[in-house]
From TrEMBL:
InterPro entries: ChyE-like, Class_I_gatase-like, GATASE
KW Hydrolase (keyword) present: no
Gene Ontology CC annotation, any one: cytosol
Glutamine amidotransferase domain location: 73-175
Protein name as catalogued: Type 1 glutamine amidotransferase
Organism: Szabonella alba
Domain of life of the organism encoding this protein: Bacteria
Matches recorded under PROSITE patterns: GATASE_TYPE_1
Keywords attached to this entry: Glutamine amidotransferase
Keyword set includes tRNA-binding: no
Length: 237
């Protein structure tokens, strides 16, 4: 199964020698799921020819806001809606989570209570999972028809499921602790309040549940493909 990675941002240059770029992190996260990958850098207007160029799509994080005026955002939103209409599965992470919600009629804003950084606990339908976070923007209005499947006291809409077609997560399961520590060194100063960064540093060694999200993403893509194949068979009698 080919997963197309729609890259909407890039890791800091000084961290790439050790961490790789965002597509590298997702390939590592999903290494045991049996997928192959191809990346399109949509941030610089490198888009796939159509929604069927891959079996499923994964939209990365970004330093951009979904509500900002960037050339790639309107065509990306069109791509998301077209994929949804055609039952081509899409996964969104952080910015991906936000841009999908916005494209589907929800609302994304810079959260007035500030940042979420580092190891963070979420309630995934009764199961507590710890994932790394790095965001200030949030989905503040859930699109009609989307189901909230993860939440916490700071981020009410931490993961969304759009029936069997799209699954999105606000946190960064692809970020290892070393990369979060690097973000705190390179992007945090002057941006993230010091007390918040100190609290995040104190949790750098906390066990993470990224593997659980990787399995859920893998199961989502496989189930969506199976459903699509069944629909195609039914259509042809």
């Amino acid at each position: 199964m080919l997963i197309g990675i729609l890259q909407t941002g890039a890791a800091p240059d000084q961290l790439k020698p050790d961490s790789g770029d965002y597509p590298d992190m997702f390939q590592l996260l999903l290494a045991e799921q049996g997928f192959t990958f191809r990346t399109w850098r949509v941030e610089v207007m490198d888009f796939p020819p159509d929604i069927h160029a891959a079996d499923g799509w994964l939209i990365t994080g970004s330093r951009h806001g979904a509500y900002e005026d960037h050339a790639f955002i309107p065509p990306l939103e069109d791509f998301i809606r077209t994929a949804y209409g055609a039952h081509v599965p899409v996964v969104g992470i952080c910015f991906g989570h936000q841009i999908i919600a916005q494209a589907m009629g929800g609302k994304v804003e810079q959260y007035d209570k500030g940042w979420s950084v580092g190891a963070t606990d979420y309630d995934f339908e009764g199961q507590t999972l710890t994932l790394n976070a790095w965001h200030r923007d949030q989905v503040t209005q859930v699109p009609q028809g989307a189901k909230v499947v993860a939440t916490n006291g700071f981020c009410a809409n931490a993961a969304l499921l759009y029936d069997d077609r799209m699954f999105t997560v606000q946190a960064h399961p692809e970020f290892p602790p070393a990369f979060v520590e690097g973000l705190m060194r390179t992007r945090g100063p002057g941006l993230v309040p010091d007390p918040l960064m100190q609290a995040a540093r104190a949790r750098l060694a906390d066990p993470l549940d990224a593997g659980s999200i990787a399995k859920r993403i893998g199961a989502f893509f496989r189930a969506a493909r199976q459903a699509g194949q069944q629909d195609a068979e039914a259509a042809h009698g």
